[in-house]
Amino acid sequence: MKSLIRSFAAILVAALGCLYLATYLNTSEGYSGSNTLTIYNWGDYVDPELLEKFQKETGITVIYQTFDSNEAMMTKIQQGGTTYDVAMPSEYAIDKMRQENLLLPLDQAKLPNLKHIDERFLDLGFDKGNKYSVPYFWGTVGVVFNPELVPEGLTFDSWDDLWDPRLGNSLMLVDGAREVIGFGLNSLGYSLNDTNEAHLQETLAKLQTLTPNVKAIVGDEIKMLLAGEEAAAGVVWSGDAAEIMDENDKLDYVIPKEGSNVWFDNMVIPRTASNLDGAHKFMNFMLDPANAAQNAEYVGYSTPNKDAIPLLPEEISSDERFYPPAQLTSRLEVYNNLGKRMLSHYNELFLEFKMHRK
Ligand code: SPD
């Protein structure tokens, strides 16, 4: 009888072992690819609660990594050896990645929530028909400033106000080649897509005269530094300005009159992806109006989702500094894909500007 009980116990242990193993294999399947989703996004650019909600709803394990510039993101994807399933590049980078065969076409049948996106953000020049990308956030580049810390009379309605000699060591600049070379070009009346070498050299020379005013060129920390009144003004993306002003309501945000940049960050599937179904599920999840509103409120950037807007607090959705009307954005320029060589040249010029400060 004892041996019968022992055999029964052995069978029970074996059965339980099999059950455990099956469950374990099922939940850990992701590590072989099919039940994980690797997302590659800008820093500070998603509400972590939404990632948890997505995991709970789908059973897909999210692996989340960040980048701080389009250039860094493109280099990483180009080099290979990564398995990013979803990434969030800006428009000119999408155009470049598409041309370099770094993106997979989307299956729009799996993206029914695309219907919530405002038409103003669909079918744009960098991805006609949204074959490769769906809108995530959008915004502008401008100046956030603290009226209590800037010298009297400076309103930054002109880019040239940044060069005011009274602003010594009081400016922060976003660490972006297109942004800095772009406002330099705009300040001289040129397009921020200018490729004329004489104009670019003139821009570099003018930017180099800005260095006495520049306290730091920084990434996401720019928000903390400006909100903490470590500098009087900064050139920033509008969403960062919104977040800074949420922390410190003394500050204001303006777009200088000579013009500036309107940009679009979209979700794409890199060619390296291994979980196409999960990638579409994630995109569709982020396109859901309630999720898009929650994300916009958390991150501070502007959502292109027209059905998310009514779900936002009125003081956010009615703020034309961050939800500017089409007649204002139509006078702003979108960054063009200037081609591999010219984009590298912009990066070199930016590096030269940064080195000049040292
Ligand atoms: N902290 C997130 C910043 C994302 C900003 N993307 C703007 C891209 C402009 N080309």
Task: Give an account of the 3D structure.
InterPro entries: SBP, Sperm_putr-bd. It holds the Pfam family SBP_bac_8. This is Spermidine/putrescine ABC transporter substrate-binding protein. By secondary structure, the chain is α/β, with parallel strands linked by helices. The protein has 13 helices and nine strands. It has two domains: about 1-135 and about 265-315, D-Maltodextrin-Binding Protein, domain 2; about 140-260 and about 325-355, Periplasmic binding protein-like II (D-Maltodextrin-Binding Protein, domain 2), CATH 3.40.190. The chain is about 40% helix and about 15% strand. Strands 4, 5, 6, 7, 8 and 9 form a six-stranded mixed beta sheet that branches. Spermidine binds next to strand 9.
Descriptive tags:
6-stranded mixed sheet; transport; 358 residues; D-Maltodextrin-Binding Protein, domain 2; 2 domains
Explain briefly what this protein structure is.
By secondary structure, the chain is α/β, with parallel strands linked by helices. 41% of the residues lie in helices and 15% in strands. The protein has two domains: 189 residues, 3-Layer(aba) Sandwich (D-Maltodextrin-Binding Protein, domain 2); 157 residues, 3-Layer(aba) Sandwich (D-Maltodextrin-Binding Protein, domain 2), CATH 3.40.190.10.
